[in-house]
Design brief:
It is a single chain. By secondary structure, the chain is an all-alpha fold. It is 56% helix and 0% strand. It has five helices and no strands.
Length: 108
């Protein structure tokens, strides 16, 4: 029992504000900057649809960097889902009897 135990929050010390990676900060900053730029450049927007359209970049950026359980954030979860559906689906057996399986195939 004299092993070293890593604290559960050891990874959080390397993150910005204990939540964000540099990529997350860049995504969030670009999304917010675009929305504020569109808001500043648009004529006085009083209709709801116009404000919603202007806030789409900020909303999308915030959605992507929201932390979720079992993943770092939504962006990482979406990347995992994409990789699951697009990468190789043939799984190569490498279990406890892998070498016996190979020798049987070569013997036939």
């Amino acid at each position: 029992m004299n092993g070293y135990l890593i604290p559960a929050n050891a990874k959080k010390g390397t993150l910005i504000l204990n939540l964000f990676t540099m990529t997350d900060v860049i995504i969030l900053g670009v999304g917010l900057a675009l929305s504020f730029l569109f808001l500043a450049l648009s004529p006085t927007t009083t209709d709801t649809v116009g404000v919603i359209l202007i806030m789409i970049p900020a909303g999308t950026a915030i959605f992507l960097v929201i932390p979720i359980a079992n993943y770092h954030n939504v962006r990482v979860a979406l990347r995992s889902i994409f990789r699951f559906f697009t990468e190789r689906r043939k799984f190569i057996w490498k279990g406890w009897c892998y070498h016996e399986y190979i020798s049987e195939e070569n013997g036939k």
